[in-house]
Amino acid sequence: MDDFYDDLETRSADARAAALFRDLPNQIANAKDNTAYYASLFRSVDPESIGDQESLATLPVTRKSDLIRLHQERPPFGGLATAAPGRLRRVFQSPGPIYDAEGAGPDYWRTARAFHAAGFRAGGVIHNAFAYHLTPAGAMVEAGAEALGCAVFPAGTGSTDLQVRAIVDLRPAYFTGTPSFLKVLLTRGLEAGADLSSLGNASVAGEALPASLRGELRTLGVRVTQWYAADDLGLIAYESEAADGLIVDEGVIVEIVRPGSGQPVPHGEVGEVVVTTFTREYPLIRFATGDLSAVLSGQSACGRTNMRLRGWLGRADQTTKVRGMFVHPSQVADVMKRHPELLRARLVVDSHQGNDTMTLRCESVGVDATSVEQTVQALCKLRARVEIVPPGTLANDGKIIDDIRGREDTGD
């Protein structure tokens, strides 16, 4: 059916889980057998024992924030790629530098699914305003457009007046790029009296899309949906024309975990997005993106049945420095591991008369605050006051460390 890219989008949750977890042991074995990094990380893991969500959650996470160090220690890919650079289609560089591998095969980054959900169809022209140098965004669009049967105008970034002229001349129906640059193009066209009316449909990424900006773009004549991807992973999730959350891509497994840990959070709670891919050349298993999101209940009104995310809700890396020492979300997670009675915890960092203070606010019933204070002292090498609050008190926003020093509003 033209409404859906393929039958995978409408399969039952059980059928989807069965297919993904049937293939997962092979991907874990591929990573373990063919990369130095996973050979070490998974040395005691039997790939055949990882066959469901619960067993997957026992594996350690690999954090995006660790990639710079890994790539410096073992260039060019940090021991994460199964192929040498010359065996790949392309190699990209992201800030760090981090080198990203693009393997063979059609639509390697899986973006065609997102564009189809946005209403792009074969025979149309896509105005691609993502960068074509160093990073993979431009190539991600190219691969998806080819799989979908669309032509691409490789606009890249900048040269606003030339891009406006190209839209006037080529009459593309579709745009992909950042929403802010789309607004720049449309505004410039309006000022110049240029006819950009062909551009009626956009699928944007790379930055937040607040409701106000979406509304402005709609007023300027463009219906906008968004897709969520990463240089390392390709497509993670995408919005359909129903615009009711980001639908997880069929080619990945997504978990939401407590920041600083690999522990899945309860359904609907804000946490860090962790992704497992099935690409053979650059397998990433339980890769912690550093982005915060949460799972939405139910399925999209468009009929696609995969899990939905609320969208980008902030960054999970909330590391801060207190009295000259770094305090990490993982340390708060370790405190919670030692005290299972804690349901949620948030470390509030403040300053009183020039001295840093820490208060660990804990949701719990029946925990000894003194013992928790001793655990914080042992793990962080810093003292903190522990405040026990009733369950449901802390905001569901993914914050593990809240640094309010210098902030006038010290509420949650």
Notable characteristics:
about 400 residues, 21 strands, alpha/beta, nine-stranded mixed sheet
Written account of the structure:
- Helix content is 27%, strand content 24%.
- By secondary structure, it is α/β, with parallel strands linked by helices.
- The strands form five sheets. Strands 5-4-6-7-8-9-10-15-14 form a nine-stranded mixed sheet, sandwiched between helices. A four-stranded mixed sheet has the order 1-13-12-11, with no helix packed on it.
- α7 (160-170) packs across α8 (179-192), α8 (179-192) packs parallel to α9 (211-219) and α10 (329-338) crosses α11 (369-380).
- It is globular.
- Residues 408-412 have low confidence and may be disordered.
- Mean pLDDT over the full residue set: 93
Strand segment tally:
21
Can you list the strand order of the major beta sheet? 5-4-6-7-8-9-10-15-14
Strand content: 15-25%
**Rg over alpha carbons:** 23 Å
The percent of residues in helical segments reads: 25-40%
Number of contiguous helices: 11
Q: Which word captures the global form? A: globular
Q: How would you sum up the major sheet?
A: 9 strands, mixed
Backbone structural class: alpha/beta
Q: Distance between termini?
A: 47 Å
Flag low-confidence runs: 408-412
List the helices and strands and how they pair.
Elements: H1 13-34, H2 36-41, H3 53-56, E1 62-63, H4 67-73, E2 90-94, E3 98-102, H5 112-117, E4 125-128, H6 137-148, E5 151-154, H7 160-170, E6 174-177, H8 179-192, E7 201-204, H9 211-219, E8 223-230, E9 234-238, E10 246-248, E11 252-257, E12 271-277, E13 287-293, E14 295-296, E15 308-309, E16 320-322, E17 325-327, H10 329-338, E18 344-352, E19 355-363, H11 369-380, E20 385-389, E21 401-403
Parallel strand pairs: 1-13, 4-5, 4-6, 6-7, 7-8, 18-21, 19-20
Antiparallel strand pairs: 2-3, 8-9, 9-10, 10-15, 11-12, 12-13, 14-15, 16-17, 18-19
Helix pairs in contact: 7-8, 8-9, 10-11
